[in-house]
Fold Polymerase/histidinol phosphatase N-terminal domain-containing protein.
Amino acid sequence: MSADLHVHTTFSDGTQTPAEVISLAKQVGLTTVAITDHDVVNGIEPAKIKGQELGVEIIPGIELTSETKEAEVHILGYFIGINSPELLRVIKKIQNGRKDRIIAMCTRLQELGIDLKADKVFQLAANDAPGRPHVARALVDGGFVAGFKEAFDKYIEFHGPAYVPHYKLSPEEAIALVLKSGGLPVFGHPAVSNCDEIIPDLRAAGLVGIEAHYFTHSASQTEHYLKLAKDNGLLVTGGSDYHGFSSGREVRLGSVDVPDACVEDLKNEYIRRNKS
Ligand code: AMP
Ligand code: ZN
Ligand code: FE
Ligand code: FE
């Protein structure tokens, strides 16, 4: 087995379609891929169709953005029920919030003297979950910045001058939503959020795992999160957070080593919960 449990497609801010991502997964020797688009599930079915054709197993997933006062907390959901009415209802609201947020970010940019129209961003995204990477790409295309890094550093990083918060979803609400759909909630890239102190509360809210294996995690950070998972009775997951070519991130699909036991433990937990 060889798995990547954190992958984006064009249905959120990835630059490759689900079919392209799964073809690449086959090429690089992956046997299991979890599609975890931001706040949207539309990429899962097309990925499954390609997966069936090529013999790549697809785990239905999502990455929900939540915020505390201090940090953004990304909750990954694995084996989510993609027809769950509650999940679909809430992500629709979140998607509408994302569109309003693009308009608000463009207004902020206008105030900063940058003439970027929201329609340009919507055209680029052409999906239900537009996000900051689309704003960054539009800023690059418009010649306002030299690259993605400058776009984020100068304008749209968390609490940057043109940053606008997401639809208000707390980590606990994101966890509850994943659980309600029959899925398993996992704390994505915890070192990025840098708020380890909330892990016991998230555990109490129903968190089942931590993404200890992640592309930006150093060896010591991985060790740290493996220990935190163990101490809190949580499972461990991992992935590359692949966003495709020219996505502003150079990480390769499947480039993070995810031990087979992580995938097996996750599947067994899902099976165990669905037996009773
Ligand atoms: P959003 O959900 O709209 O707030 O956008 C968050 C996404 O922006 C993340 O999932 C990454 O794909 C991307 N992102 C965040 N920071 C950076 C950065 N410094 N450079 C490139 N992409 C970034
Ligand atoms: Zn993203
Ligand atoms: Fe994330
Ligand atoms: Fe991600």
Notes: The domain at 3-81+181-273 is CATH 3.20.20.140 (TIM Barrel). Strands lie at 3-7, 32-35, 57-67, 72-78, 184-187, 209-214, 235-239. The mean pLDDT is 96.
